[in-house]
Amino acid sequence: MVFWRTEDGQPHAQIERCPHLGAALSAGHIISDRLVCPFHGFEFDGSGACVHIPANGKESTVPKGMSATSFTLSETHGFIWLWWGDAQDEYPGVPFFSILETGWKYHTNIVEWPVHYTRAIENQLDVAHLPFVHANTIGTGGKSFVDGPYVEADQQGIRVWVTNHQDHGQPHLARQELAKEADGKEPSLSFQFPGTWLLNISSDLKNFIAFVPVNNQSTRYYLRLYHHVHIPIISMLFEKVMGLSNLFILNQDKRVILKQTPTNSLDANQDRFICADRAIIEYRRHLKKSLKLGDTSEHTVTDLDISNK
């Protein structure tokens, strides 16, 4: 794909291949709000229509079949969002967390890992790995006992309420008790389809990740810290320190998820789940349904303690 902007700042996206002889349009340049192919100078407008073929002359009619495939975009919340489906008269709103809409400052760190996006996302929905993978950071204290999680899921996303404790042999709370404790509280973490995640650290501090698949072997993480520190110098120092901390914590996951098999969790039909995996189960169920991959009944919790159903 090739992304480019017209003079008014509007972003555009097209299939990179020139429909003429297959040159890479990303190697071209922009003239008068037109993307120019580097091979024969064909010019394309923001809709992907070819509007000029130099070899045919200025007065020639350009065949409609010479158009490049283009995509509908929306630029908001510091990202360019691409509509991957068929063209429509009206498009749904961009999926984002309403709590982040106004009043926040944020800083973004970007990393790219050789991992399939499903494994990257499930890692951030996993509430049981903290005392083992992050034992010297966010998992200190040996809190391996997971109460819940209480999970709500719909077509928009997944919301998770969870508390981790040290294991003293205590029983799990029943689902009704978990629901009562979650009532009126902001989720511990949230996920919105197709690929954004939010961790509720406090009322003034949130961690956000946008998971962007590069290909089947690589995912780019846009890791953001949202905060309410508005004094410029203090804000800059705060973002620097917290950004490095978040990158360090995220990097602790790397050695584990890069070696998970199979690499794509959609192929992981032999995985066996526990109660703490409820958010992961919901993610796989929704993903298989949205990708029309057939029956999702195999992705259920097995051998659960009945007190925690």
UniProtKB/TrEMBL annotation:
Domain of life according to the entry: Bacteria
Pfam families xrefs: Rieske, VanA_C
UniProt KW Chaperone keyword: no
Residues in Rieske domain copies: 1-82
Gene Ontology MF terms: 2 iron, 2 sulfur cluster binding; dioxygenase activity; metal ion binding
InterPro entries attached to this UniProt entry: Cholesterol_7-desaturase, Rieske_2Fe-2S, Rieske_2Fe-2S_sf, VanA_C_cat
The keyword Metal-binding is annotated on this UniProt entry: yes
Alphabetic keyword roster: 2Fe-2S, Dioxygenase, Iron, Iron-sulfur, Metal-binding, Oxidoreductase
Protein name as it appears in the record: Aromatic ring-hydroxylating dioxygenase subunit alpha
Species in which this protein is naturally found: Methylovulum psychrotolerans
